[in-house]
Design brief:
The complex is a heterodimer of chains A (273) and B (444).
Chain A lengths: L4 H7 L18 H31 L2 H17 L1 H4 L3 H8 L17 H10 L7 H19 L5 H19 L11 H18 L1 H7 L1 H19 L16 H18 L2 H4 L4
Helix pairs in contact in A: 2-3, 2-7, 3-6, 3-9, 8-9, 8-12, 9-11, 10-11, 11-12
Chain B lengths: L12 H22 L47 E9 L4 H20 L1 E2 L18 E2 L5 E7 L37 E7 L2 H14 L4 E10 L33 H7 L16 E10 L1 H5 L3 H8 L34 H5 L12 E2 L2 E7 L5 E11 L3 H11 L8 E11 L12 H14 L1
Antiparallel strand pairs in B: 1-5, 1-6, 2-3, 4-5, 4-11, 7-10, 7-11, 8-10, 9-10
Helix pairs in contact in B: 2-3
């Protein structure tokens, strides 16, 4: 981190206003926040490296390899989405979906992962995709550099745990994220892992103030993991989302929505604004 | 303040009276701190018209229905303006979870139908309530009616042995084009109140409080057009549907306890499980109306298809809506066609009295179809003691009716409306769970 912990806290106004939930001393948040920055930095490094391989395959016209790399490359992005989303221009160019654009797949600004996913899985081609491949790689590198320069706001970090579960509830349960490749379960797991990481980092503080909350959250994460594990393939990947049984989709909805509901209280429980 | 533009002034006497009261209050507020705020009213002695964003006034927001009772409310309760039917998948994993679901629902419904202040929590936390009715929830004549679907009695909760005898999964009729995404469900909740916002508030409360137990499967809102109060001595009139006809004219008398016991409520001593007594079968149908085509149909054809006059709602051989048609004098259907809607639905014979259902529908409007035609129609809801003698028989008689050319049922489902919650020791679904436990204990 570029700033000293104390400077960080002063910048963020964390050393002011007491509240009912001020049980967490501000300094207690410094370690988890810096640990989270390390986690994000590692993931964005992986994202850049894997995007390089993925876009190379696209540019070489190697449809099969590009298809294979598509879901795994995205996972790193999905797991750090709360931070990545802070740069809304990049989030739009890296991760927007067809329905974010009035002109759908024909929109000029429909770029990024899902533009390539559309070409690879829906059109089964890499023709004319080099421009999108270059743009995606440039965008993730830009994201890497912006994250390196960034001070992580604790409330965004903590709020990210719930935000990731909102992502799952909004687009993963319905299978709308990866509509051409149906590789939603990779993203699903990426979101869940990212959320769980945040909870784990702040667990010592949460445990002190509300052990029952931690137990309930852990139980729901375990339920989600257990169901997702049923769809793991031998190569360490996941089945396509259309293979997920109706009763498993329903069984996922309960813990996912409950996690979104419970984790929405995490900022408050840690005394953050 | 200068004289207001009188073209903005409200016309109704009630509106004027409400505004007068507000004018005085507004003036007091203005004196205190809001000088310059236009709510202050007119100095010329006349009330100013309301400001554009001022909340519309209703004197009925405190109206409420008793939650406790032998029967659930929302069935023989007079139908208010706004209705919403929501079907849920139950996410509970076992019987214990299911009981928690019913108990939580019970607690939320008791609060929502009564109203009151919402507890405040630390502002660093999400608020407990959506806030759309303000910090003090107004009941606004709300009823919340809970029913269970055929699928709740599958292997998940061990309720197979106590399923109501006639509860079944809805099967499409010949004219249906059912969309899987808006059919069936483990549980249905009917919300009715004076305003769509009050129903939405209640739904959001339930969704927020039961995230691990219920998931919305489909939802359909509807409304009923209000009309001016009746003049003294004027017979009651049913509301109109989106085809412009009065709907529910032949309903049995919902104020007559004996009639309701015969036609709507499950009675003791029947072949239904004892726990189901005082419950009822609920049939829900989302029936799209092809309104553009209907509006291009000659009036006399519309009337002969229905079997009633459009303006008054009278039968073809009568003058007012409440007149009873005498088909015995018209065996060949020269006055009221044999295949007209009302004659098929209710042939008015001694033998078909047992098929009478209590209709309680709402009109819905959902947007526009791809062809530019309006997506609207009837959120049909009816209640009956016996689903087979009631809705299924009536709809079977209607199969092939000329009205079908203008209708396309697309969704809905069959449910069993649970008996009422009698007091604070009771909760919604208690008798069902108790019966299932008794069966399990006996066979164990």
């Amino acid at each position: 981190m570029k700033k000293s912990p104390l400077a960080l806290l002063v910048t963020l106004g964390l050393l002011q206003t007491p509240s009912v939930f001020a049980a967490t001393a501000p300094l207690d948040l410094v370690t988890p926040v810096s640990d989270y920055k390390i986690y994000v930095s590692e993931h964005v490094d992986t994202l850049v490296a894997e995007t390089q391989k993925f876009t190379d395959a696209v540019k070489k016209g190697d449809v099969a390899t590009a298809k294979k790399l598509f879901p795994t490359t995205r996972v790193s992005y999905e797991s750090i989405e709360p931070i990545a989303e802070l740069f809304s221009d990049l989030d739009a160019s890296i991760d927007s979906r067809e329905d974010d654009h009035e002109n759908g797949v024909k929109a000029d600004d429909f770029t990024g992962f899902h533009r390539l996913e559309y070409a690879l899985f829906s059109l089964n081609t890499t023709k004319d995709q080099a421009v999108f491949a270059d743009k995606l790689l440039a965008d993730v590198k830009e994201l890497q550099s912006r994250i390196a320069d960034m001070t992580f706001p604790p409330e965004k970090v903590v709020g990210g745990a719930a935000a990731l579960m909102e992502e799952v509830a909004a687009t993963k349960l319905s299978g709308e994220e990866d509509r051409y490749s149906h590789t939603d379960l990779y993203d699903f797991q990426g979101n869940v892992d990212g959320s769980k990481k945040i909870v784990d980092l702040f667990k010592p503080q949460l445990q002190k103030s509300d052990a029952a909350f931690v137990a309930k959250v852990d139980k729901n994460f375990a339920t989600v993991d257990k169901i997702l594990a049923k769809y793991k393939t031998k190569d360490g990947g996941y089945e396509t989302y259309d293979k997920v049984k109706e009763n498993d989709r329903k069984a996922l909805a309960g813990p996912v929505n409950t996690l979104a509901e419970d984790l929405s209280q995490m900022r408050g429980k840690l005394g953050l604004n | 303040m200068k004289d207001f533009d009188s073209s903005n002034a409200p016309i109704s006497a009630e509106r004027r009276r409400v505004l007068l009261g507000l004018g005085a209050a507004g003036a007091a507020i203005a004196g205190a701190s809001l000088s310059g705020n236009a709510l202050a009213g007119s100095t010329s002695g006349q009330p100013a018209p309301a400001q554009v964003t001022e909340a519309p006034k209703s004197e009925k927001t405190q109206d409420h229905n008793e939650f406790h009772g032998v029967h659930q409310s929302g069935i023989v309760t007079p139908r208010p303006v706004a209705g919403m039917m929501v079907s849920f998948d139950v996410l509970a994993q076992d019987r214990e979870d299911l009981e928690r679901m019913f108990r939580t629902l019970n607690e939320r419904i008791a609060f929502l139908m009564t109203g009151g202040a919402v507890p405040q929590v630390d502002p660093k936390l999400p608020p407990l309530d959506s806030g759309i009715l303000g910090p003090v929830v107004t009941p606004d004549n709300l009823t919340i009616t809970v029913s269970v679907g055929d699928s709740l009695f599958d292997e998940r909760f061990g309720l197979e042995a106590v399923k109501p005898k006639r509860l079944q999964r809805m099967v499409g009729f010949p004219n249906d084009a059912l969309e899987a995404a808006c059919c069936h469900g483990d549980l249905s909740i009917q919300f009715c109140s004076n305003a769509p916002d009050s129903n939405i508030h209640a739904l959001r409360d339930i969704v927020k409080n039961l995230p691990d137990l219920l998931m919305v499967r489909w939802k359909q809102e509807g409304t009923v057009p209000a009309q001016a109060p009746l003049k003294p001595g004027q017979p009651p009139e049913s509301a109109r549907n989106f085809l412009g006809f009065r709907d529910g004219s032949a309903n049995p008398d919902s104020n007559n306890q004996k009639t309701m016991n015969e036609l709507v409520w499950v009675q003791p001593g029947s072949d239904e499980p004892a726990w189901a007594v005082n419950g009822s079968y609920q049939a829900v149908r989302i029936i799209r109306n092809f309104v553009e085509r209907w509006d291009r149909t000659p009036l006399q054809e519309q009337e002969s298809i229905f079997g009633r006059t459009k303006a008054a709602g009278a039968p073809m051989d009568g003058k007012t809506e409440t007149d009873v048609p005498d088909y015995s004098k018209d065996p060949e259907g020269k006055i009221t066609k044999l295949d007209s809607h009302i004659r098929l639905a209710n042939p008015r014979t001694a033998d078909t009295q047992k098929n009478l259902i209590l209709r309680r529908p709402f009109n819905y409007s959902n947007g526009v179809n791809k062809n530019g035609q309006l997506d609207m129609g009837l959120l049909f809801i009816c209640y009956q003691q016996d689903l087979e003698k009631g809705f299924i028989t009536v709809q079977t008689r209607l199969n092939g009716e000329p009205l079908e050319e203008y209708l396309k049922p697309t969704g809905g489902g069959y449910f069993f409306t649970l008996p009422g919650v009698v007091d604070n020791n009771d909760f919604i679904g208690r008798s069902l769970l108790a019966a299932a436990t008794a069966v399990t204990t006996k066979t164990a």
